[in-house]
Specification:
Blueprint (H helix, E strand, L loop, with lengths): L2 H7 L10 H5 L6 H8 L1 H9 L10 E7 L2 E6 L2 E2 L1 H14 L3 E6 L6 E5 H17 L7 E5 L4 H13 L3 E3 L6 H11 L1 E7 L1 E4 L2 E4 L1 H10 L11 E5 L13 E3 H4 L12 E2 L3 E7 L7 E6 H15 L7 E4 L6 H13 L3 E5 L7 H9 L3 E4 L1 H10 L2 H4 L8 E5 L5 H11 L6 E4 L33 E4 L11 E6 L9 E2 L3 H9 L8 E9 L5 E6 L3 E4 L2 E4 H9 L4 E11 L3 E10 L10 H12 L8 E4 L13 H8 L15 H10 L3
Helix pairs in contact: 3-4, 5-6, 5-7, 5-12, 6-7, 8-9, 11-12, 14-16
Bound molecules: 5'-O-[(S)-butoxy(hydroxy)phosphoryl]adenosine.
Length: 654
């Protein structure tokens, strides 16, 4: 979003007060801000007290060796026990944990907390039989089926950190993640349903495992545990592959869980950074579970009889924090849907399951806006009482449409800013407190230090813009990058060493009231449909194609997806003009290297790229071209005629 649109945005004057009944009965009230300010650690200790601990902690926060934080030091806890066993023990075993809705119509399952406990215990026993021990890493590559939740919780139960890889990622992407965290077991399924058709997953796992083989031909992956979902044919390695329905269904439902150290690794989630190599974000147990469960209860004002639905895929952090760990630790009843947004289907589900809290991304809202309000208007959505948004800035039009059309003008909208790294929601309105402004994430939650600063780390005055920073450690913060402490320090903590701020990589502005407006990334990270993609990673994928000499990728504004991937490539001389299908060939290549989400919307074959005298590609100028704008200042280019060559190309429609 440009500065220009932003100053228009923050002049937005509509305000939406919290509904009176919600405000009166809100889980978190105004006083929480002051309480957290007066004693931040005591505030988070209260949040941690909502969970069941084996051993209570001795120290809330150890920040003696920044940026390496330890939360609830000396405490022991088991995330799976908190997500299932304790609800059963409290007499809520019959409460539905998951209303699962499969993609094929009529394929549904309701799973109670008691059933979930049995499944998780069985899976933990089955994984133990496969040799998984505390500390071993397990990769999970699955569609949105209940078994993926069971698999994650079984790993958590054993203390075997999982790394869930989004099912839309390629075999190559899966292989690099398996290698980076040295996973011993992969859990997958034969396939899943995507847009009505069965699509395979197991072949990508076979290919990935093959790629991870060392010089001796042996991969570190000892077993692949496979859920039968679609029934499609799969290749089978008798020594390595195991069917879930054989291993798990036959395992005992008794499993004694060990309490793990509060700082025991819970999972690694890979996300794109500003270099080509994805970063393995490490989250640990006690702090993460505290941060996610508390904010889920706070921001969504969760009540015992709510039906909650987060539409995110489990392969992203939103799925981890606000579909698996947060809601389940809170004993919530939730909907889990296997499919992707389709006309009317979501609203049918809201109506059928009486969903009361709904959490989705702006890109989906904009898609529904385009389809027209007649579709949602055809359903009874009066069960809804609260709406959430996440993943990218929500433009005021989409916010107001969401509020009016989906929320019947009665549900508050919480625009929640956070990141894979933060683990938990950091900036958001409180639904019972804040008068929401369409397009603003408002301010840091109680206990969170969020500010906008200039290059020197000085807090900017109201009405100005700068960089978003987090000024205080928080429970669910990432602890490091898997196997790379140095990159962890460099990426997040080196920008403001004096102040010790966490650098989020986002631009932001304070309006006249001091409320925050997010401006998007300030680094080489794009946000496509709320998914984070690295320009550099896509550039490396393009350059790995034999016909490509050089590539530059930019995120161009897109009405539906927020940003879209636009690539500019220079071909090798040996490739000539690349042939008639060069663009499609390169798009497919990116899909194979990374996954379909990274496939460029547009690829332009150009003779040159705009570079500074020191050889740095000026993506800003390419962005101007991709967004059909007048090209900006070219005076720092080594060769100022380059942009004319590129624009000629664009004009010719190449
Ligand atoms: C980046 C983090 C948080 C889970 C999903 C994405 C952008 C996220 C918002 C929001 C404006 C947002 C930021 C952030 N972002 N939520 N409410 N308003 N921008 O997680 O893949 O780690 O991406 O998403 O740019 O840095 P992620």
């Amino acid at each position: 979003m440009s500065e220009q649109t932003l100053s228009n945005l923050s002049r937005e004057e509509r305000r939406f007060e919290p509904p009176a009944d919600l405000a009166a009965d809100a889980n978190v009230k105004e006083e929480a801000y002051a309480r957290a300010d007066s004693d931040r650690e005591a505030f988070w200790a209260d949040a941690a007290d909502r969970l069941d601990w084996g051993q209570k902690w001795d120290q809330v926060l150890d920040w003696s060796n920044p940026p390496f934080a330890k939360w609830f030091v000396g405490g022991t806890i088991n995330a799976a026990v908190n997500c299932v066993d304790r609800h059963v023990d409290a007499g809520n075993g019959d409460k539905v944990a998951i209303h699962w809705v499969g993609e094929p119509d009529d394929d549904t399952r309701d799973i109670t907390y008691a059933q979930l406990k049995d499944e998780v215990s069985k899976a933990a026993n089955a994984l133990t039989d496969l040799g998984v021990k505390k500390g071993d890493r397990v990769a999970i590559y699955m569609p949105m089926i209940p078994e993926v939740v069971v698999a994650m919780l079984a790993c958590a139960r054993l203390g075997a950190p999982h790394t869930v890889v989004f099912g839309g990622f390629s075999a190559d992407a899966l292989a690099s993640r398996i290698t980076d965290c040295d996973a011993k077991v992969v859990i997958t399924s034969d396939g899943g349903y995507r847009r009505g058709a069965a699509s395979a997953l197991k072949p990508a796992v076979d290919e990935a495992v093959e790629k991870t083989a060392g010089p001796d031909g042996q991969s570190q992956v000892r077993h692949v545990l496979v859920v039968r979902r679609t029934g499609q044919d799969v290749d089978w390695d008798d020594d390595r592959d195991v069917w879930w329905h054989e291993a798990v269904d036959n395992a005992s439902a008794d499993h004694e869980a060990e309490m793990h150290d509060s700082e025991h690794p819970l999972f690694v989630m890979y996300t794109s950074g500003s270099t080509g190599k994805p970063k393995g974000i490490l989250h640990t147990t006690g702090g993460y579970l505290t941060g996610t469960s508390f904010t889920h209860w706070e921001v969504f004002d969760l009540k015992d009889d709510d039906v909650y639905w987060c539409t995110a895929d489990v392969g992203w952090i939103t799925g981890h924090s606000y579909m698996v760990y947060g809601p389940l630790a809170n004993g919530a009843t939730q909907v889990m849907y296997e499919g992707t947004p389709e006309k009317g289907r979501w609203w049918q589900i809201v109506q059928d399951y009486q969903v009361s809290i709904f959490y989705t991304a702006p890109t989906a809202i904009r898609t529904f806006m385009k389809q027209g309000r007649e579709i949602p208007d055809g359903y009874d959505m009066s069960s809804l009482r609260l709406l959430g948004s996440v993943g990218e800035p929500i433009n005021p039009e989409a916010y107001v449409w969401y509020r009016e059309v989906i929320g019947g003008d009665r549900c508050p909208v919480v625009d929640t800013w956070w990141q894979t790294e933060t683990g938990q929601i950091m900036i958001s309105p409180l639904p019972g407190v804040t008068a929401g402004k369409p397009g603003s994430a408002m301010k840091g939650l109680p206990g969170v230090g969020a500010d906008v600063v200039d290059d020197d780390g000085q807090s900017v005055p109201d009405g100005s813009g700068g960089y978003l920073v987090l000024t205080q450690p928080w429970p669910a913060m990432l602890r490091t990058l898997w196997g790379d402490d140095q990159r962890f320090k460099d990426t997040y903590w080196s920008r403001y060493p004096k102040q010790g701020f966490y650098f989020a990589g986002d631009g932001a502005k304070k309006d006249e009231d001091g409320d925050l407006w997010m401006l998007g990334r300030v680094d080489d990270v794009m946000n496509v449909s709320g998914h984070r993609l690295s320009t550099t990673e896509i550039e490396s994928a393009l350059v790995s194609h034999p016909k490509v000499a050089e590539a530059a990728v930019v995120g161009a504004a897109d009405e539906t997806t927020g940003q879209a991937v636009c690539a500019f490539v220079i071909l090798r001389e040996s490739a000539g003009d690349g042939g008639p299908d060069i663009v499609e060939e390169l798009r497919k290549h990116v899909q194979k290297e990374i996954g379909a989400i990274a496939k460029p919307r547009q690829i332009m074959v150009v003779p040159e790229l705009p570079k500074t005298r020191s050889g740095k590609i000026m993506r800003r100028l390419l962005k101007d071209v991709a967004e059909h704008r007048e090209v900006g200042d070219v005076t720092t280019l080594a060769d100022s005629t380059v942009m004319d060559l590129i624009k000629d190309k664009e004009g010719s429609g190449a």
